[in-house]
Write a structure and sequence with these properties.
- The chain contains 16 helices and nine strands.
- By secondary structure, the protein is mostly helical.
- The chain has a three-stranded antiparallel sheet with strand order 5-6-7, covered by helices on one side.
Length: about 450
């Protein structure tokens, strides 16, 4: 046994933290309480309210300060999903602000610059109509707004009208996506920049965008080229090869269309049909029968991008797909320690892929580390299919990492070390995962396994 002097300081810090994980007298695990309170502090610290120079009010949660000051589309949706457990009014305000950032034709931007315009260092990388002076980007992001809206509405008994108040705007948004981002009319949305998926530097984009991929000097030219074409996806797809029918984007698109169909009694059938078409096309054209993975389609020839990232597992969340297809994703990928069964969370890239990098890099963040939103999408589907024990293990591993390192941007999937931004809003989705586990009668709260 090592002596006290030989023990490293961080080990004592971890032991002290661990003492708070024992159950309280009423049976609730203290660790869950600790993580819940910490999540609330993160969201409070990142909350922003004010009025833009033109008088438009805003209220949203920035992802993390000081680096991420703006409002990002999918971040805000995730923040609202967590806010609904603490202050549903703020969750509603967050989503209303996101709608307010959009245009009257239904376009909603990837990034809105409410109170902090893009500075000279970053402005060239943002997909805006002009280099300076824009209030938002001209690009999209993974469109899960209707899904977030439905989840927030479910926990808004004090505002029963919220569920339907934005239906005209939500219809316009998803109609715009259908009209402007599906140029070949196959039911799959097209992205024209890597960061439109939210996965910026994922290795699956390396072979598609080449020297113009994220954080490469050519990325500035890619943005400028799109700017000159008015970010028209149809024109871009007709002229160039650098565009992707992205699996992750389209999984969330289908989930959001399903949510909109449930919210909208009058027009729901239209959106349910669109969702079914997207799901059918993913199954028909993106599923690689050899590996069981769902692969992006790149360029005018729609070649499959054979890189294994968590995006290729995302259709697991689509309950309308064949059970056998979904089970294969779990059993051949998520349960395989050579691939996605890591010590902590679910890695963003398969561990057997040559591009896998589990640690921190100044320029790379989606090339291996585990993010909480990955588990948020995939773990409920694992529970639904009966993989309760593995679902518990994944959530418990993230709970341990967050207890030790706080809510970090992402975590090393092999060591659990917290990396990059501190007080990162998306990572508070862990609260939603823990509460889901506590509502399952056959599932012990994951923190109890710490």
């Amino acid at each position: 046994m090592r002596s006290r002097a030989a023990t490293r300081p961080w080990e004592f810090a971890w032991r002290r933290t661990s003492r708070g994980i024992e159950p309280t007298p009423d049976g609730r695990p203290r660790g869950v309480e600790h993580l819940t309170e910490a999540a609330k502090r993160v969201l409070d610290a990142n909350w922003r309210e004010g009025q833009r120079a033109d008088g438009v009010p805003y209220a949203f949660t920035c992802p993390a300060t000081p680096r991420y000051r703006h409002q990002w589309y999918w971040d805000s949706c995730f923040h609202a999903i967590v806010w609904r457990h603490f202050e549903p009014a703020r969750a509603r305000a967050e989503l209303r602000t996101l709608l307010r950032a959009g245009r009257l034709d239904g376009f909603i931007p990837h990034t809105a610059f409410w109170d902090w315009p893009a500075r000279w260092r970053r402005a060239p990388f943002y997909g805006t109509h002009t280099m300076f002076g824009c209030s938002a980007t001209a690009t999209i992001q993974t469109p899960l707004l209707a899904l977030a809206w439905e989840l927030v509405a479910e926990l808004s008994p004090d505002d029963p009208g919220f569920a339907t108040e934005a239906l005209p705007a939500l219809r316009l948004h998803y109609d715009w996506l259908d009209r402007e981002r599906d140029p070949d009319r196959d039911g799959l949305l097209t992205i024209i920049l890597p960061d439109e998926s939210g996965l910026d530097d994922s290795p699956k984009y390396d072979g598609v965008f080449g020297w113009m991929r994220h954080y490469r000097p050519g990325h500035v030219w890619l943005v400028e080229r799109h700017r000159r074409l008015g970010y028209d996806a149809g024109k871009i797809a007709e002229r160039y090869e650098e565009h992707v029918e992205d699996v992750l984007v389209n999984v969330f698109y289908a989930l959001a269309l399903r949510a909109l169909s449930r919210l909208d009694d009058e027009h729901g059938g239209v959106y349910a049909q669109r969702a079914a078409r997207t799901e059918a096309t993913l199954l028909e054209r993106c599923l690689d029968q050899r590996t069981g993975l769902f692969l992006d389609l790149a360029g005018r020839g729609e070649r499959r991008v054979a890189v294994s990232t968590w995006s290729a597992l995302a259709p697991l969340a689509l309950t309308g797909l064949p059970v056998g297809v979904r089970r294969r994703l779990v059993e051949e990928q998520l349960l395989d320690p050579r691939r996605y069964r890591a010590e902590v969370g679910i890695p963003s890239v398969s561990q057997d892929d040559p591009s896998f990098e589990p640690g921190f890099s100044l320029w790379r963040c989606w090339r291996g580390p585990s993010w909480v939103n990955i588990a948020w999408l995939l773990v409920p589907a694992m529970r639904e299919l009966g993989y309760q024990e593995e679902a518990d293990r994944i959530v418990g591993s993230l709970a341990r990492a967050a207890t030790r390192y706080g809510y970090r941007e992402y975590y090393n999937p092999r060591t659990g070390r917290g990396l990059a931004a501190r007080g990162f809003g998306i990572s508070t989705l862990l609260v939603d995962l823990l509460r889901q586990a506590q509502t399952e009668p056959s599932v012990a709260p994951p923190m109890m396994h710490l």
